[in-house]
């Protein structure tokens, strides 16, 4: 199961913390004003706390769709006083948040995507197949759509599409058909029933490898409930647009779908778009960003040993080198 921010005070340290600090430090060495750091997925506030400690003049704008996470992070970061502004918002709402706060430019942005440790560890949230809990999976519990509504209300073809596209599940059609048969008897309302149903829907030979067979189905439902991929397609370009020359972004992704979007968005920003039939590059078509990582960086063996939930992380980072035209 993928995971985002890991709080030290909950038994976890923030993922790839030293590398995040190293990559973002040059972006917040600005003069004449207080630098602004945006944590688009605040979680328990581990990365944010480390950034605020490392840079005494830094201002934080922290976003999270999970009100419980905001409350906990608020307690953790209270000692920084008015250097901190926390907002209940999804990360694609960053432009509106910055306008509301009167913040014209940000210098560094971090996105630590995925599910936070508390969301996984609190059984009633319904994210984990290792607990029996209501089928919920909402990161923002003020929204209406739950995993139970998806499982019990979506047409069979739409269920299969979600499992295939968002879970990369080979047996999407079989699982969707099994869900439809089961919900006709009684609504599917618990994580245990769903996990058991997925397991018996998958061939026995496949069940013996690759971890819990419900993993891909739970990932697909979580992505659908929270609109994660569509939100991410909007959020990353919005964050890049807010950065000045020298501004940097770091992205921590936990599955291939998020990482693929990140790679594509950044690739478009670092490309020279001069028409190929012209003899010289045109200034207005020069790259607007440069990559700070060679491909996707992985966590160290030491980190994955001490924090197994970080094992699937992929890090990408970029710096603005030219103003938008």
Highlighted features:
single chain; 325 residues; alpha/beta; 7-stranded mixed β-sheet; disordered N terminus
List the helices and strands and how they pair.
Layout: H1 17-24, E1 36-39, H2 46-54, E2 59-64, H3 67-77, E3 84-88, H4 94-101, E4 108-112, H5 117-121, H6 147-153, H7 156-167, H8 172-185, H9 191-201, H10 204-207, H11 215-226, H12 228-241, E5 248-253, H13 256-269, E6 289-291, H14 301-306, E7 314-320
Parallel strand pairs: 1-2, 1-4, 2-3, 4-5
Antiparallel strand pairs: 5-7, 6-7
Word description of this protein:
This protein is α/β, with parallel strands linked by helices and 325 residues long. It contains 14 helices and seven strands. The chain has helices at residues 17-24, 46-54, 67-77, 94-101, 117-121, 147-153, 156-167, 172-185, 191-201, 204-207, 215-226, 228-241, 256-269, 301-306, and strands spanning 36-39, 59-64, 84-88, 108-112, 248-253, 289-291, 314-320. The chain has a seven-stranded mixed beta sheet with strand order 3-2-1-4-5-7-6, with helices on both faces. Strand 1, helix 2 and strand 2 form a beta-alpha-beta unit. The longest helix is centred in the middle third of the chain and has 14 residues, at 172-185. It is globular. Mean pLDDT is 89; it is low at 1-11.
């Amino acid at each position: 199961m993928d995971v985002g921010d890991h709080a030290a005070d909950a038994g976890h340290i923030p993922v790839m913390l030293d590398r995040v600090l190293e990559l973002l430090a040059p972006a917040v060495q600005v003069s004449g004003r207080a630098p602004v750091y945006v944590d688009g997925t605040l979680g328990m506030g581990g990365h944010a706390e480390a950034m605020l400690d490392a840079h005494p003049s830094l201002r934080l704008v922290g976003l999270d769709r999970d009100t419980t996470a905001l409350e906990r992070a608020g307690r953790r970061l209270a000692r920084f006083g008015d250097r901190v502004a926390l907002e209940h918002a999804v990360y694609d709402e960053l432009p509106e948040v910055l306008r509301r706060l009167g913040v014209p430019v940000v210098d560094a942005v971090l996105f630590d995507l995925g599910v936070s440790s508390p969301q996984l560890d609190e059984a009633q949230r319904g994210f984990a197949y290792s607990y029996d809990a209501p089928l919920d999976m909402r990161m923002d519990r003020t929204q209406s759509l739950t995993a139970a509504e998806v499982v019990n209300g979506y047409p069979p073809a739409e269920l299969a599409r979600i499992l295939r596209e968002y879970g990369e599940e080979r047996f999407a059609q079989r699982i969707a058909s099994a869900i439809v048969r089961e919900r006709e008897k009684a609504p599917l309302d618990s994580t245990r029933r769903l996990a058991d149903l997925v397991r018996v829907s998958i061939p026995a030979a496949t069940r013996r490898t690759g971890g819990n067979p419900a993993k891909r189905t739970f990932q697909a439902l979580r992505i659908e409930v929270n609109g994660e991929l569509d939100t991410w397609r909007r959020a990353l370009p919005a964050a890049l647009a807010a950065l000045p020359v020298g501004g940097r972004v770091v992205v921590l992704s936990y599955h291939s779908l998020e990482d693929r979007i990140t790679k594509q968005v950044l690739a478009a920003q670092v490309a020279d778009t001069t028409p190929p039939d012209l003899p010289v590059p045109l200034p207005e078509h020069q790259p607007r960003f440069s990559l700070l990582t060679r491909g996707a960086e992985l966590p160290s063996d030491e980190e994955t040993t001490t924090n197994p939930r970080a094992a699937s992380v992929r890090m990408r980072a970029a710096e603005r080198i030219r103003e938008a035209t």
